[in-house]
Write a structure and sequence with these properties.
Layout (H helix, E strand, L loop, with lengths): L4 E2 L25 E3 L2 E5 L4 E12 L2 E14 L10 E16 L2 E11 L4 E13 L2 E11 L4 E5 L9 E3 L8
Parallel strand pairs: 1-10
Antiparallel strand pairs: 2-4, 3-4, 4-5, 5-6, 6-7, 7-8, 8-9, 9-10, 9-11
């Protein structure tokens, strides 16, 4: 079964609510970020990670070329110390996201922590779960409600494409 609800991408028969799985960054678990370089801009409350960036939290994995973390600094220190709360994460360049059995790829991703909204865009955004595949140019997901929408690439370059594999029959 495909674990996302495609509110505008597929027929209503394919829509389902998904509040327990999908791409979710939680405020409750530690986030580990590894990169080749880190630049902290205290005046802007941003941390910029570049080069082979990997973000891991529980079963959520994000890989990209460049990632900007926007945070609220309530501890008076820098973004690498004190008490900070992540507001938004922006990923750029070959964005790869994996959570459980779902994988999404694109060129740019934005994660709004307070609202639980994730937007992944690119010349080709691919969402897979097992052998099921959806391709478009924009994935918008509310990670709290589990509702998702895939938008096509426009009139000239293509529409949303979906390939659903039937479940294998058990004997």
């Amino acid at each position: 079964m495909f674990g996302l609800a495609f509110s505008a991408a597929a027929s209503p028969a394919l829509a389902q609510e998904n509040t327990g799985s999908g791409f979710v960054l939680s405020g409750n678990s530690p986030i580990e970020i590894v990169s080749d370089r880190l630049e902290v801009r205290e005046i802007d409350n941003t941390a910029i990670f570049t080069g082979n960036v990997s973000l891991q939290q529980d079963n959520f994995l994000l890989r990209t070329v460049r990632m900007v973390v926007h945070y609220v600094n309530s501890g008076g220190g820098s973004g690498t110390a004190g008490s900070t709360q992540v507001e938004r994460i922006e990923a750029e360049g070959k964005v790869y996201i994996k959570s459980d059995e779902q994988v999404a790829t694109g060129d740019h991703g934005t994660f709004e922590m307070a609202s639980g909204m994730m937007v992944l865009t690119g010349s080709e955004v691919v969402l897979t779960e097992g052998d099921n595949v959806v391709v478009g140019c924009r994935l918008t997901m509310n990670t709290r409600s589990g509702e998702s929408q895939i938008d096509g690439c426009g009139r000239d370059t293509g529409r949303v494409r979906m390939l659903l594999q039937p479940e294998s029959a058990e004997n």
